[in-house]
TrEMBL record:
This is TRAP-type mannitol/chloroaromatic compound transport system, substrate-binding protein. Na(+) binds at W227. PANTHER family: EXTRACYTOPLASMIC SOLUTE RECEPTOR PROTEIN (PTHR33376:SF5), PTHR33376. Keywords: Metal-binding, Signal. One of its GO terms (cellular component) is tripartite ATP-independent periplasmic transporter complex. The keyword Metal-binding applies. Substrate binds at Q168, R189, E226, E252. CDD domains: PBP2_TRAP_ketoacid_lactate_like (cd13604).
Amino acid sequence: MDRRTFLSGASIAAATVATACGDSTSTNTQTGSPASPAILRGVKQLRMVTTWPANFPGLGTAANNVAAFANAASGGSLDVRVYAAGELVSAFEAFDAVSEGTADMYHGAEYYWQGKSQAFNFFTAVPMGMTASEIMGWVEFGGGQALWDELSAQFNIKPFQAGNSGHQMAGWFKREINTLEDFRGLRMRMPGLGGSVLRELGAAAVTLSGGEIYPALQSGAIDATEWVGPWNDLAFGFYREAPYYYGPGFHEPGSSLAVGINLDVWNGLEADHKAILKQACWAANNQCLAEFQYQNALALDVLVNQHGVQLRAFSDAIWDRIGTISEQVVADTGNSDAMTRRVFDSYLGARNAMRSWDRISEMPYMAQRERVLGG
């Protein structure tokens, strides 16, 4: 859905709001001019807390886009206000704030909440897991949304996909990683199940919010970090502290971002506001993935050709070991409790089904395109 289509649909929604409120020609008693739907009904204000720095490219702006789309589509009867990490609550307090009603909505990555349930990992990314298009397919058409709703409802939250950063890089390293032995003792920022894989490799995985990463890398508190990809990584300037950039990543092949809405708030919304928020999340989801795809390409060129970043790839031996560990870590996580097992079974079934299509579509096409077009 492009912005023009979305806003065209929004005008219909706004007209519906006016009809629901009474005669669309009602006037403002103070000015004598036609009253807007928002004035007739009153404005519904919603506070969205995020796990991102203010206006951070791609991640932070995806949250802003949800709010902007919803506010515009509602004709002013919705007023979603975005608060960056630390403005109302810290990044990792966003989930509890929404669950408890301190805030109305959050925008973040679901694997941050794995302490609540391991099942949340599957709704962001798991090692050797789904790509962006695959996770969208599972959630929207493969039963993922119903399971996600059931899981999140336990915490008084209604979830939606609302962004995807696409395939992520393996990360920035102060020294080269040539063998499995090079992981031993390595202190690396990597959250989620990717961090569990690192620990099995002998590294020390650390979870830090976005704003904490560069100072930790600069001070030597960590030796390496992953974040997202070239666009966001360039913005944070990691290349100044760690010259070796490894890719592709094994841990997040298509990282889905989410909006979570307090369930009491959601249930109290009128039908048109629910529809508008759902469409706003969809629009932001699609825009975010498209933006990352394009901006990563531009940023990679800057990193390599202007800042002298050295691109590296893990050896096949490292990939083989990562693959074996990843399969075990994800399976152990998937069997941690009954709810997570249901999510895991659904996720695995969808991933395996889509792999059969990928084998004869995108994978051979990309290989042939590179062979034909060359460097």
